[in-house]
Amino acid sequence: MRKINKILGMIKSMKLGVILLLMLGVTSVAGTMIPQNESVQFYAQNYGSKFNNLLQLLELDNVYYSWWYAFIVTLLIINLTTCIITRLPSVVRQMKSIPDGSGAFTEKNLLFEVEGEGAIENLSAHMGFKKLKNIHENIYASRKNNIGYMGSWMLHLGILMIIVFFALGNRFAYETNLYGVPGTMGQLENTDLFMKINSFDAKFRDDFTAEQYITNIDILNNKQETVKTGDVSVNSPLRYNHYSFYQNSMGYAVNLKVYEGEEKIHDDVFYQSEVYVSNGKKFAVQFMNFYPDMEMTGEGPKTATPYFNNPYMLYAVFYEGYMVDMNVVPCNSSIKYREFSFKVDRPQEFTLINIRKDLFTPFAFLGALILIAGIMVTFYFVPVTLYAVKTKETTIYYICSKKNNEITRTKLLLKYDDFKRGEQSNGLE
After folding, report:
1. I need a labelling partner for 73 at 20 to 30 A (CA). Which of 54, 296, 304, 409 fits?
2. Taking CA 232 as the corner, what is the angle to CA 230 and CA 234, rounded to the nearest 5 degrees?
């Protein structure tokens, strides 16, 4: 039984919770620093074979879905849940009870002394306390800011809700991406909704860094009826029926025409990073990179501005599975290899929209609000107890607060001075 109690005590300890939070923080940094969900070849090329083996073993290429990350999160959830459940009764008792005053009647807690019984009720009310209650013979007490005892408990509850509903959202939320140039329409995977891209505008600052991406879209039902129209921009998603449409990124596209001999076998938009493969899989073209305003430097081709002043594209040609050509060519160029040829023209920008439906987001947001409220309660609602000790000739007042006792004492002394001035004014009247 002792061992069980010891294990339970360890599980619900605050130290364990702090350690687990630190572990999550450190591992999350690893997940941010190391690119996630890339190919094995990518990690071997960029990190070396030895580190790549360790990376694969510890699943650092997929941190947030690794078994050990899930284990840490599960332990933290158990720790927080246990703390919340076991601490609630004691928190409620603290809020309802009044300390007996042992250790409170000291010089540092002394407020003032009033001759006779004084206006004890009026005085306590003026200082913001409820009616003084007799707790022991000639000792009276009252408390305020009792909700302060809930602060730490609310912090734990908020953190727990954020972790749980964020994890549930990652596990069960619907997410897909649609991209295209203006005029493109695509269906949201596994839904009866469609999205049409009406226009896309990329705004740049004077130094050519991206300022904003704005996409105007239509959302259509399965009858091709528009149910909502609006703009999607960075940090300003469009929402419809629990779906959120986020502006994710942008890229470049050209129009690609492919010929086999004299016969045109393909004529369509060709997106950056896309690969076109002929029906016979004999010929393929990869759109490797794009330079809207190319200039050649000692380090290779670069773009001077994001505008189509001197558009070039980097391509690679594959024939029967082997790369046979790679080059940078201006748009409106025609490239021929054996019986195949292709032409690229009409450069334009395309947009990528991320669509997400997460029914757990409002609950995670509620957890964040509870967390913020817990912080506010902890710092701004410090429980304070006022004691009044009656003697035959005087009433002595003491103040007891676990935090900022001296500040609280100074504020109450100012209120007492204000109360005395009010009494004197009433006496003059």
Report:
1. 54
2. 155
